[in-house]
Design a protein that fits this description.
Blueprint (H helix, E strand, L loop, with lengths): L2 H17 L14 H6 L5 H4 L14 H8 L7 H11 L20 H7 L4 H5 L18 H10 L6 H4 L2
Helix pairs in contact: 4-5
C-alpha cells in the first residue's frame, strides 16, 4: 500500500464529516431576542419571515422591517444601537443563515407551513423563548429527520418528492 493513502484516506473522511456537520456555531451580528419581540411587541414568526408563507425560502428579516420600530433607539441596549446603525447607513444586517437544506434536496417553506400546516417550532424549536438568535441549527436538517416527520404525518416518502 502506498504511504500517501495512510494520510489521504483518513484526511478525506475527516474533511467530509466536518463539512457535513451541523455542529458549526456562528456568531450573529446582533443578539436578537425573539422572546422580547414576541411577548412585548406581539410579533409572530410571519411578521419577520413573511416569505415562509408564500415562498420556498423563509427569508431573513432586515432593516426594511426593523426600521418600522427602530429608526431611532427605543432603549439603551447596545444591540439596538447596532441595529439603528445598520438602519441609518441603509446597510443590510449581515445575518448568517444557519438552517440549510442540502443542495440535493428540495424544501419549500410554503409547502410545509401554508399547505402542510407544519409549525415553525417543529423544525426550529422553542423560538418563542429564545433570548439569543440561532448560532447553529436547532435540529440537524437531514434525511432521517425529514423522513420521521413525513412518516408521522403520513405524507409521501417518495424520493422524487424532495430529491430533484
Amino acid at each position: 500500500m502506498d504511504h500517501w493513502k495512510l494520510f489521504a484516506i483518513p484526511a478525506f473522511f475527516l474533511f467530509f464529516i466536518s463539512g457535513c456537520s451541523d455542529s458549526t456555531s456562528f456568531t450573529q451580528p446582533i443578539a436578537y431576542n425573539h422572546k422580547k419581540h414576541i411577548e412585548e411587541a406581539g410579533l409572530t414568526c410571519f411578521d419577520c419571515h413573511p416569505q415562509a408563507l408564500t415562498h420556498q425560502k423563509a427569508s431573513l428579516p432586515n432593516i426594511q422591517f426593523c426600521k418600522n420600530c427602530h429608526e431611532e433607539a427605543m432603549t439603551d441596549s447596545k444591540e439596538e444601537e447596532k441595529l439603528v446603525a445598520y438602519i441609518k447607513k441603509n446597510q443590510p444586517i449581515p445575518w448568517i443563515q444557519v438552517h440549510r437544506v442540502p443542495d440535493h434536496a428540495y424544501f419549500s417553506h410554503r409547502r410545509h407551513v401554508s399547505l402542510g400546516k407544519v409549525a415553525c417550532q417543529d423544525c426550529h424549536g422553542d423560538v418563542n423563548n429564545m433570548t439569543l438568535p440561532f448560532s447553529k441549527p436547532h435540529i440537524p436538517i437531514n434525511m432521517a429527520f425529514c423522513l420521521r416527520c413525513h412518516e408521522k404525518n403520513q405524507v409521501t416518502t417518495e424520493c422524487s418528492a424532495c430529491h430533484r
